[in-house]
Amino acid sequence: MAQPLVVQAAKLFLVDLVGGVLGFPVWWYSKGVVRWSRFMWDWYETYRATLAVDVWVKNWFVPMYGSYDIPGRLISFFMRTVMIVLRSLLLLLVSCLMIIIYCIYFILPPIVVVAIVYNAYGLFL
Fold first, then answer.
1. What pLDDT does residue 22 have?
2. Which tens digit of pLDDT belongs to each residue from 47-79?
3. Could you tell me which of 90, 94, 62 has the C-alpha nearest to residue 76?
4. How far is it, in rounded angstroms, from Cα 51 to Cα 56?
5. CB of 53 within 8 A of CB of 82?
């Protein structure tokens, strides 16, 4: 027996509404975490490749600009040492910030729910 269009639309709306509201936390903490983790890892890998600390370490004792005399070697060594230290510190700083941003992902939905409840409660006073 065919149902009226209004009944079908109401069922579809309620299923989408209830399924969306109740299904969102499940998605956020399952598939959403996987997507967020991949995104954060790709972001880290891109930034790590941009800083290229491993390339600087690999070429640490290679003289820059083909200058094989003693002053050229010393300047190259100290310059690369400074660059390795600075780039490593920058990578560490970015890693710490990314960990903080990653953790915010987990506490964001409860904060939003508390804010909604708090403002809704104030609305009814």
1. 83
2. 999 999 999 999 888 888 878 888 888 988 999
3. 62
4. 9
5. no
- The mean pLDDT value for 11-35 works out to 87
- How is residue 125 annotated by DSSP? -
* The one-letter amino acid at 93: L
Q: What is the SS3 assignment for 51-116?
A: HCHHHHHHCCCCCHHHCCCHHHHHHHHHHHHHHHHHHHHHHHHHHHHHHHHHHHHHHHHHHHHHHH
Which residue type occupies 7?
V
CA distance 4 to 93: 60
Q: Measured between alpha carbons, how far is 14 from 113 in angstroms, rounded to an integer?
A: 21
Tokens of 125: 């006073």
Give the Cα separation of 43 and 37 in Å (integer): 10
Greatest alpha-carbon span in the chain = 93
Q: Which amino acid is at 10?
A: A
- What's residue 55's pLDDT? 93
* Phi/psi of residue 62, nearest 5 degrees: -90, 125
